[in-house]
Amino acid sequence: MADGQRLGAAFLAACAEHGERRAVVAGGEELSYARFAALVRERARTLDALLGPDLVNVGLHAANSIDYLLCYYALLVAGRLPFLIDATFGAAELEGIRTSCGVPAFLFDGAEPFPLGGEARAVPDSALTLAVPPAPAGAPESGVPVPGAPEPGASTATCRFTSGTTGAPKCLEFTADAVIAAARTWAAGTGLGPDDRVLCLAGFTNGLAFNTSLLPVFTVGAELHLYQGLPTSGGISRAVTRAAATRLVAFPLAYRLLAAAPRPDVGAFAGVTRAVSAAAVLDPEVRRGFESRYGVRIADYYGIAETGPCTYEREPDRSEGLGTALPGVSVKVVELPTGESEVRVRTDSMAAGYLNAPGALAERLDPDGYYRTGDLGHLADGRLFVTGRLGGPINLAGRKIDPAEIERTLLALDGVTDAAVFADTDANGETVLHAALAGSGRIGRAEVVDACRARLAPFKVPGRVTFLPAIPRSTVGKARMTELRRLVRDTRAADGTPQELEKKA
Amino acid sequence: MSTANEAARTDTGIPGDAELRTEIELLVETATGRVVTVADLRAADGELDRAGVNSIGYINLMEVLEQRYDAVIDPEADPEHLYSVDSIVRFVRARLTEGGRA
Fold it and tell me: Which residue in B32, B44, B72 is closest to A234 by CB distance?
């Protein structure tokens, strides 16, 4: 039995245990555990027939839905390897995944044509469609991965993505044991039980949902309620009411909206015992505002894409820090030669490696097998406090973005000779991507936004664009960020926007 | 010169198109933390995606449309309503007319 099938079997065993209990609810549709399992088996047979013997690696490029869950678990049961892909990824990211990971087939929301084109086949009894994009030059036939594409590990059961620098998101390989360990760790460490009704606002491709909802909810026989669409305070309140939710799983942005809502539906949250926040820093004022208004405690959780869930605050009267280590997790803080203190973690749910960056994950492990998170912080009485970053990806409302990926796109624009992308703050205090450009062509903000929209997922498009005569760089070519920020600030104060490169060159 | 919509404002208190458009443009600017300015919006013919409104901007905008006009847009079911300033104006006007909001 393939490792993915072992993961599928673990899911089916949970369904058998919980029988007629309600398992999942979304968009007016609901399934009991028994019905869920029956539909997964049926979908597995359907996908088996559609995919044939050759299409093993299958991308799942869709928004959260019951259909999504059926396809994910059916792929596992059918012995295929699911790759969970952010639904906002566009042609460039998908092509990168196809070629660098050897993913020849994709299940996608069928309303729009698949960004990579190719043959589209309806999946019976599903809103998802199977796309098999045309084979690249040199490949013998459609559906066959690019020659030389890496082989996933024999025990890889699910692949997810994190930000990459080369145009292709980095693909994390997880074994069945790692996924099951993450689910058990979360359930045991947070007291998730069969009477819980979990309303999840995060996409399954994100660690927040993957680690707290996708499998953990089903292992304990709880109910998973899916929020569909963009969240507003009213929409969340209505969904909490419909679900009679006991747990809310959401990003800090959702709590900000709820804390600031002018007409809050406080009663909707009467049954919520725990609100889980992760993936980005939660503003202490937002926490205080939400908790005092709704009488529900927000429990911060710390997790890393590469390691799974790490810490959680279990004590209800604690409102600072990220809690203590979850079962099976070790956290330590190591002082670096620079004097900074880096958080390092070791878990039972670590990824096995990056499929399309062999060896890169091993390089992130220290000699004791701890993952170097790149987060700065400290431990106090076993509680983790994260205070900053050593560098690396920008965290934009829970999505990690490597500036180098955007800089590559910008440098491909006519007339742009240098580019630096960094995290800035907008007038609402939210993180925003800022692109500083130098060059000689005639180009404005609109052209930059257009070009990025054509090549990158929408969340990677820089909101602010500033044109400079040159990007200040060190002798080794690194952007000198302090000087760059000062130049950008002075330029914007002097000129306003939009500007054009020609005027600055 | 008085337009039909301006006349409607006189009778019902509902803003005319020009006024509503200006309101919506400013709401977009505020929703994006002033990252997308009114000038950026106009340069993109009022199309929000083209102007560079990101998902956080859309969420903030939906929030304020719901709070201010009781206009609930489901971007999954009716994505066209959030396409441009014009489409938002049409949607909000319909909502205000339907609700008899002054």
Answer: B72
* Of B39, B52, B59, Cβ closest to residue A232: B59
A interface with B, Cβ–Cβ below 8 Å = 63, 88, 228-235, 253, 257, 261-263, 397, 425-430, 432, 444-446, 449-450, 453, 458-459, 461-464, 497-498
Report the sign of the C-alpha dihedral through residues B91, B97, B98, B102, in that order: positive
Kindly list the domain boundaries of chain A, sorted by start residue.
Answer: 3-174, 177-329+345-350, 394-504
Nearest to A84 by CA among A96, A95, A68, A102: A68
> B15 preceded by cis ω (within 30°)?
no
Phi, psi at A414, each rounded to 5°: -60, 130
Measure B7 CA to nearest chain A CA, in Å: 31
What pLDDT is recorded for position B3? 47
Instruction: Give the separation between CA A489 and CA A11, rounded to whole angstroms.
Output: 53
User: Which chain B residue lies closest to A449 (C-alpha atoms)?
Assistant: B52
The pLDDT score that the predictor gives to residue A162 is 87
CA-based nearest distance B39→chain A, Å: 8
Contacts of residue A383, Cβ cutoff 8 Å, sequence gap at least 6: A311, A313, A318, A321, A322, A323, A324
Residue from A125, A145, A120 nearest A57 by CA:
A145
CATH topology of domain A394-504: GMP Synthetase; Chain A, domain 3 (3.30.300)
d(CA A302, CA A281): 10
Reported as a single tens digit per residue, the pLDDT across A35-72 is 999 999 999 999 999 999 989 999 999 999 999 999 99
What is the rounded distance in angstroms from the CA atom of residue A157 to the CA atom of residue A180? 11
Q: Closest approach of chain B CAs to the CA of A354, in angstroms?
A: 28
Structural tokens at position A432: 């925003």
Domain A3-174 has CATH 3.40.50.980: yes
Flag whether residue B38 sits within 8 Å of chain A, measured between CB atoms. no
- In sequence order, the β-bridge partners of residue A419 are A437
Q: What is the pLDDT of residues A387-432, one digit of tens each?
A: 887 877 788 877 888 888 899 889 988 889 999 999 898 888 888 9
d(CA A100, CA A360): 15
Element (H, E) at A130: strand A128-132
Q: Is B35 within 8 Å of A446 when comparing Cβ atoms?
A: no
DSSP 8-state symbol, B13? -
pLDDT per position as a tens digit, A74-91: 999 999 999 999 998 988
- Does the beta-carbon distance from A449 to B52 stay under 8 Å? yes
In CATH, which superfamily holds the domain spanning A177-329+345-350?
Answer: ANL, N-terminal domain (3.40.50.12780)
What is the structure's pLDDT at A145?
Answer: 57
pLDDT computed for residue B16 by the predictor: 82
Considering the entire predicted model, what is its pTM? 0.86
Question: B22 to chain A, minimum CA–CA distance in Å?
Answer: 19
Give the separation between CA A313 and CA A294, rounded to whole angstroms.
19
Weakly modelled stretches of chain A, pLDDT under 70: 1, 136-147, 164-167, 441, 495-505
